[in-house]
Amino acid sequence: MNDLVSTSITRRSLRKKLRPRLYKRWWFWTLTGVLILVVGLAAWLGSRVLQAKNELEAAQSKIGDLTSQAAALDIDGALATFDEISAHTDRAVDASSDPTWRVAELVPGVGVNLSAVRELSVAVQRILADVASPLLDVAKGLDLQSLAPKDGAIDLQPLVDAVPAVAQARRGLDAAIPLVGAINTDGALPQIVAARSKVAGMVEQLDPLLTGANSAVPFIAPMLGSEGPRNYVVMFQNPSEARPLGGTALSFAVIRVDQGRIEMVETVPAGFGNFRNVGSVVPVPEGVEELFGPGAFGSFIANSTLRPSFTSAAEITQANWVRDRGYAVDGVVSIDPIALGYVLRATGPIPLSTGDVLASDTLVPLLLNEIYQRFNSGNDVADNRAQDVVYGEAVAATFGALTGGSLDPVALVGALVQGWGEHRILFWSANENERSVVALLGPNGELPVSDAETDRVGLYFNDNVGSKLNYYLNQAVTLSKNTCAADGRQQYRVTADLSSTLQPGDAAGLSPSVAGQWKGERVPKGSMRMQVFLYAPPGSTITGAVVNGQSVALEAHHDTDYPVGKLTVIVGPGESLRLSYDITAAEAGDKSLEVLTTPLVHPTLITTEALDCATVSVG
Known about the structure:
Blueprint (H helix, E strand, L loop, with lengths): L1 H17 L7 H46 L3 H21 L3 H6 L6 H31 L2 H4 L9 H25 L8 H34 L6 E14 L2 E13 L2 E9 L18 H5 L17 H16 L5 E5 L1 H11 L2 E2 L5 E2 L4 H12 L5 H24 L5 H13 L3 E5 L2 H8 L14 E10 L9 E11 L5 E12 L11 H4 L2 H4 L6 E8 L5 E7 L2 E3 L4 E3 L2 E10 L4 E13 L3 E6 L7 E6 L9
Parallel strand pairs: 1-4, 8-17, 9-18
Antiparallel strand pairs: 1-2, 2-3, 4-7, 5-6, 8-11, 9-10, 10-16, 11-15, 12-13, 12-16, 14-15
């Protein structure tokens, strides 16, 4: 028995002696090394992923700051922020460019996130280097302070230098668009999907802006005389005597621009025999003669704004200049006193020889009301000349302040943008290519154009007494719509609320210039008689009109393809009036409704509400 036990122990001892210890086996160390390598690579890769993620998030968090600084023209701040974003993006690209990262992209589930982070980092880096960088270089050269006229001249070289830089940015964006579009985030983490969406949205916003800039920038310096002198007519509209486009064009000026140097050549009143009135100087659009009356369109330059199309007004002005001044001009600019008041925010107060002081809050009442009341001698011709002298001095003084170099360029840009957006500043070029560039800014001062999503109507006002009484006009417009008919076509209603701020007791003291031809027109003194035109979308039908709750008959008018409703109304001192037009859309479908209106002295409040089908007559 003992021998058997002894033998068993001996065998076990022998096996232990024959079996190598585990830590001495080669495969143990190989497996251990692989495990350590895998864990180490995973930790290293994890740290790189975290670094790339953090850098990308840091870069994206600064994009909003860069946009805000650029919009505020804080170029120094934008440059500093750009450097921060570039540094973060470069580190994200470095973190994701290692070969090990590329191998890890092959791992199912994990790889799609790694690929997206790497591709997103590269795309943002390209956008910064090839798009943002040249644009910021342009912004440095186009510092508004340096572009402000000095001694009557603008330095055109920064504008010339901007042309290739903007073109480079356009090419850079063209290359970046497919990069961003090719980034696959299917199955990726939500944070990565959101990051890719943010970059794609930024590219989508930049695309049309750069398209417009790349088309427009090459024309700016030539329009300022870099390739030869340019002559522009400046039309001053007077909305206290409303015309559908804005107001009567009673005063003009000629400005010459040569190599950036700007000079006012002359001011020219519309009257006093400066322009003939012997029939239309341009072809009359179909339907316009019947709409506005025989001989009204195109005959008298002061009424060039009768049709709500600045193209028509500019062509009439150009034709008058050729016929009566002996030369063609390169373009026509229109501005009204309200927009001129905005401009004075950039110049500060301007004294006149009359003792008046032009300022942003005094110019409008002075030029649209006070000078007409002040010069009231009973001699209409003498009064008109005196009024034109003040108006001309105001224009010349403002021009001198703008070109003298002592102005706030940021405030000037804000004023011009506001005036353009309110359709108070308009521009037409005699050069067809330049007109196409201006069109990129959107239609301005033209007939309303509808599209697949929106029907647009025009509501326009025309003084019908030869007065300046629209200075006292307040107006509001309400748009309403609904689908009331079985055929699915929408019903639209455009309502205007008009009121006079002139007190009844003040009407007797109005000068002839303000009161107009009230006796000959047989209306009470101080009463505004106006024509109100509703331009409906082509193909639609104007089905009715109501004035102060009473249905009124409408004549069938049109301007080319536009159905036009025409009403004549009278608003007495201190009175109010409501009118409305009903329209049936051209075809079935749900569209939004927008309105263009005459830019009058006081802003037009526009509201929307649902249309009550019970108030609509549908056939």
